[in-house]
Design a protein that fits this description.
mainly beta, 4-stranded antiparallel sheet, 6% helix, angiogenesis, transmembrane helix
Amino acid sequence: CFWKLKPPTPFIFSPFFFFFFFLFSLVSRPVDGKFCLGPAPSASQLCNLPCPSECEVSAWSVWGPCLPENCQDRQGRRGFKMRQRHVIMDPVGPSADCPHLVESIPCEDPVCYEWIISEGICVTDHGKCGLGNRILKTLCKNKKGEEVPHHLCSEYPRPEVMACEIPCATDCVISEWSQWSPCSHSCSSKNAEGSQSRSRSILALPAEGGKACPPDRVLQEHRACNDHPCVHFYWETSPWSSCSEDSLVALNATFSWSGEATCGVGIQTRKVSCMKSSSGHVTPKRCPDSTRPETVRPCLLLCKKDCIVTPFSEWTRCPTACQPGNATAVKQSRYRIIIQDAANGGHACPDTLYEERECEDIPICPVYRWKTHRWSHCILVPDSVRQGVLGYNEACGHGLQSRAVTCLSETNESADATECMRWAGPMPPLVQECLVPCKDDCTFTPWSKFTACSFDCESTKTRRRSLTGRSRKRDKCQDTEVYPQVETELCPCEVFTSQPHGNWSDCIIGGGKSEPQSGMRSHGDTKECGEGIRLRAIACYDKTGRLVDPSHCSSSGYIEESCTVPCPFDCKLSDWSTWTPCSSSCGTGVKVRSKWLKEKPYNGGRPCPKLDLKNQVYEAVPCYTECNQYSWVVEPWSPCKINSEQNSLHCGEGIQTRKVRCVSTAEDHRGETVPSTLCNQAEIPDEVQKCSLYCPSECAVSDWGQWSTCPQVCDPNDVQTRTRQVLRSSVNTKPCPEDSQVKPCILNQNCFQYQYNLTDWSTCQLSENATCGRGVRKRLLSCVRSDGRTVSARHCQQRQLEKPTEMSSECLVGCVVDCRLSAWSAWSQCSQTCGAGGQMVRGRAVLLQAMGEGRPCPAQLAQHRSCPVKPCYSWRLGPWSSCRLQGGQCGDGLQVRNLTCVVHDASVSATAKPVEHALCAELPLKETVLQLPCSVPCPGDCHLTEWSEWSSCELTCIEGRSFETTGRQARSRAFVGQSPESPESCSGQVVEIRPCSGGKCYDYLWKTSLWRDNVRTVWCQRSDGINVTGGCALQTKPAEVRHCSPACRKPFSYCTQRGVCGCERGYTEIMRSNGFLDYCMKVPGLEDKKADVKTIAGKNKPVNSKMHDIFKGWSIQPFNPDGKLKMWVYGVSASGFLIIAFLIFTSFLMCKKSKQHQSTPPQQKPLTLAYDGDIDM
């Protein structure tokens, strides 16, 4: 199973591939997507559509000479003048085409070849001055300016000599004719005709007796020019037709052209007609046949592509189970997918891609029903069973009654009961309990139906019954408290209250209650912002506070509230302004256009590009202006003006002036005066110059000729020269001025080199309305002089410099792609069938990720909303009662519990309320045991608890690693009661162990508490933090009770927390030299009662060891831990010795003094020494 995509672009297939594909298509049919592994391939991708752009052409050239159609086969005296323009940029688009590139004008007397004349020296007929002839040099050239053999110009007279005159010394001297001025009009019409003029001037005045100067009117000449009418003719072509087969050129071959398979060569045709610029179609004779475009051209035929579809999928399955007889017809369907669309005249795709049909032979479910018969009489329990029961001799009490149940078919015929159990459900009960009242019982009629309820919630409903038979006369039956004859119940109240539950849903655009239509829609067709609603689920309660279906409170089960999703707004700029004029009037320059800010972005819209301080963005591209679009035009020089006040002869140095103006050379505005700033200011001609009007009898010379040209490679050794001619010799011996001048060729002064200059590539220029996609970038070519000045391109063309060919190239501006999302899916089913906390979710998928500065994909691809809280009905089991014994205090008994149908919202803190059992009838009962046997052990019985849960599986491990594959787990139970006289009466196991799989390794460590009264708690803990019994090695178990070694057997001693022997309160430790306790010495002054230290019976009871430890630090310790006496003991001993010596000495003095007085001492009592210590005196 695999994903199949329709290819986005055509491919070139070999015949073998078509054969393989044909076989493959026989077996590959679409199936459900769940069978294909992995994610589905992307169903969308980016593509580029070339934006249409118009053809760009250059300006028209000047009109050429009048030429015949064919110089080899000239017919008549009719010809054409022509002008051309060329394509600067090809058009883009299916219907784009360039305008005509050649225009023509009919003319008379066409010339293929002409004599080019150069004048020679004037040779006088007699002497050195006067009339004579000028010998002419002639060359025959064609229309391209190329020299050809002279016989081609034989039909035209060849000029050889031309009359001339050399002025004599006393004659007037005039200059040669100037060049003809530009024609005033490009063509002639009724209101305007073209004209041009030329002039010459007086250079020297005549002497007395010489030839006089001609009048001023003779010094100027005028002639007509551009006398052809202002009507142009050109060939117009229709678009090429599509490529069609032609039997003459068809080939049985396959080519690859432009990436597509081609199957032969065909032809394309178009119409060609002669057009007149002002009136439309004219006869073809008015246009030159030499420039007539072709009407037929060969083309490559694209191969036909037939539509390719998959076979139909398998029919969907019809149901195998039988259907009810009244059910609608069940249909099955199948579909197929287009893999390749038809193209180039191939077979079209079929119209039917989806089929369905009704399922056949679906069995109709048979109809069976149960028929119940009347109940039988109540049958009582047999007498043998009822003996010993009060009133057993009466035919009354509880019994059973039965009825017959039969199975009937659709035709009311008897059928097997198994058919009804299969098709009609379980069999109705055959037996039910009944009651035969005894003679002392109260008998009643059956309860009547409840009365109808009103719409008032406070109303009640009642039902009645009445006594029957003898019961009506009995007093006890009249007691309505014991035997009620009327029952009253509150009518069900239809007042419901709702409470919001859960959080508000996300803001849902396009409706929240209804389910969206299935299928995927593009992001652009789905509303993503604006007004919407948000939902909050409700829980509905009745008057008693019981949870009911939410439809009682709201049809939708939700609280609705309007909301708004703010729409993102992108930065908005104005359209591009028009391009400014080119910054340079000659050569390359820059033109600029701009946009300005209209609206700032907000709510996450696309940001603005970088703007300037004026909130504008600019685009600048290079531009080129032909240097000869504007030119300076000069009028003839005025006659040389001599200051007559200072010169009576009216000759010599003077000045002359002329008018200079800037005119347009463009075809549409040729000759029109324009502002002078448009012309090159560096080339502005002089308006005033000095002049010389030679005096009579002076040598007269002509004006200087043009400087000769310097070579292309400038060399200071090369020179420029210019000359002038002597027009009239001098009468006197004064020499004539120089007739030639020379200057060196210096680079960038009078010698220049030229080269083409390319600008950098422009930015990618798109069509007018495009913002991205394919465009064109350009670079411009200009002719630059070696001094850096841009000049006319003809300077580079004349030198035949190599010109770069690629002036434009395709480019691509990446499109800003916004994230595209699918439509929202349908809301899912609620995650819970009932109760609170259920969620519904819907989602959408990313069809196309954002690119560039496009609007990114939102983080929220799923929306959630809480489900309405539907009531959950379940059986709830009460707690087990204590073991109930029948008339005893031990032995076997029963434990019981109640089963109640409750309603709740399935939450942890849910409060369940009992409801009718019928609401839980359809729910399966997890546990229906309501009674369990139990026992209370009697004295001497063995009674064990229930087994505990099995422990987790454990492996035997060494340093955290196990080499076992099977582990062990255990459980235990404990004795509850056991006879002390016979402990072997309980023979059951206390611990059970079983093998298990998937065990873990654990470490076991002994843990201890702090010491307390020389006792502490010791337990074993597993590495997962669980305290366990067993697992830790008993050999390493820490001590639970602390003992002193050796034991403290001295009187008044005990074992301290430090593990050494100490003395009780009131006693001080006397230590041995090895650090152990020797004995306990009584601290003097602390006893209230003397005791016999020789007997153990006189020993006080031990005091609290804690209090002893507190005051133990105050006891005098005469020994160091090493058993040696402390220093203070020696000091106290020495002090005691001195005190005793002092007392003896004092006593001696006192006794001696008393003897000296010879006094009779009083009778003394005997001195008694007593001590409580253990030290013998």
